[in-house]
C-alpha cells in the first residue's frame, strides 16, 4: 500500500508538470522567443530535466509526509503542499498563456512563500524531507529573479 501512495504522489506531481508544460511548450517557439532575455537566463533545454527532478523530489517528500500518523500538523503540511502545487501550475498559466509577466512575478513570490511554509512544515514532521524540498525552493528563488528580469526587460 505504501508504494501505491508513492505512485499517487508521483502521478499528481507529474500531472501538474504535464499540464504546465502544455502551456509552456505552445508559447516557447512564438511569444517566448520574442522576449528580451536576461543575460543569466539558462538555455531552454535545462528546464525540462531540472523540473522533472524537482517534481520527483516533491512527490517523494509528500509521500513520506503522508506516511506519518494522522495529525493536525500532517494535514496542514499536505494542504500546504497542494496549495503550492496549485500555485506552481498557476504560474505557468499566468506567465506563458496570459503573457502577464508582472502578475506572474507577484504570483511566483506567493509560490516562494508557500514552498517555504511547506518545506518548514515538512521538516517539523520528517526532517530529511527538507533536503528534497530545498532544491525546489532554491530553483523557484532563481526563477523569481529570472521572472523579475524578464518583466523589467519586456515592459
> How many extended strands?
0
Give the overall silhouette. elongated
Task: Give the rounded overall mean pLDDT.
Answer: 97
- Spans of at least 5 consecutive residues whose pLDDT stays below 50 are none
**Class per helix and strand makeup:** mainly alpha
Strand content: under 5%
Q: What count of helical segments does DSSP give?
A: 5
The ordered H/E elements are: HHHHH
CATH second-level architecture: Up-down Bundle
Largest sheet: none
Helix percentage range: over 70%
Q: Radius of gyration from the CA trace?
A: 16 Å
Domain tally: 1
CATH topology description: Ferritin
The CATH class name reads: Mainly Alpha
Query: CATH-wise, what's the superfamily?
Result: TspO/MBR protein
Q: Distance between termini?
A: 51 Å
Would you write up a description of this structure?
The protein has 155 residues and is mostly helical. It has a single domain (2-33, 46-153), classed as Ferritin (Up-down Bundle), CATH 1.20.1260.100. It is built from five helices and no strands. The chain has helices at 2-34, 44-66, 72-97, 101-125, 129-153. α2 (44-66) packs antiparallel against α5 (129-153) and α4 packs antiparallel against α5 (129-153). The longest helix is centred in the first third of the chain and has 33 residues, at 2-34. The protein is elongated. The mean pLDDT is 97.
Amino acid at each position: 500500500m505504501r508504494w501505491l501512495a508513492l505512485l499517487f504522489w508521483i502521478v499528481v506531481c507529474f500531472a501538474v508538470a504535464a499540464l504546465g508544460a502544455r502551456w509552456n511548450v505552445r508559447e516557447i517557439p512564438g511569444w517566448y522567443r520574442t522576449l528580451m532575455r536576461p543575460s543569466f537566463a539558462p538555455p531552454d533545454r535545462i528546464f525540462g530535466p531540472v523540473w522533472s527532478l524537482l517534481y520527483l523530489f516533491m512527490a517523494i517528500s509528500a509521500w513520506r509526509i503522508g506516511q506519518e500518523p494522522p495529525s493536525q500538523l500532517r494535514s496542514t503540511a499536505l494542504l500546504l503542499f497542494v496549495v503550492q502545487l496549485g500555485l506552481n501550475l498557476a504560474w505557468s498559466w499566468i506567465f506563458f498563456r496570459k503573457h502577464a509577466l508582472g502578475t506572474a512575478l507577484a504570483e511566483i513570490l506567493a509560490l516562494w512563500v508557500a514552498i517555504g511554509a511547506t518545506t518548514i512544515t515538512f521538516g517539523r514532521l520528517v526532517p530529511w524531507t527538507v533536503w528534497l524540498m530545498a532544491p525546489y525552493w532554491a530553483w523557484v528563488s532563481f526563477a523569481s529573479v529570472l521572472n523579475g528580469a524578464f518583466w523589467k526587460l519586456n515592459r
